[in-house]
Amino acid sequence: MKKRLIALCCAATMLLSLAACGSKTSETTSTPDEQDETVVYKVGICQLVTHDALDAATQGFQDALNELLPGQVEFDYQNAAGDSNTCATIANGFVSDGVDLIMANATPALQAAATATSDIPVLGTSITEYGVALGIENFNGTVGSNVSGTSDLAPLDQQAAMIQEWYPDAQTVGLLYCANEANSQYQVDTVQAYLEEMGYTCTQYPFSDSNDIASVCQTAADASDVLYVPTDNTCASNTGIIDNICRGNVPVFCGEEGICAGCGMATLSISYYDIGYKTGEMAAQILTGESDVAEMAIEYAPEFVKKYNPTICADLGVTAPEGYEAIA
Question: Which of 8, 43, 169, 229 has the fewest Cβ atoms within 10 Å of its own Cβ atom?
Answer without folding.
Answer: 169
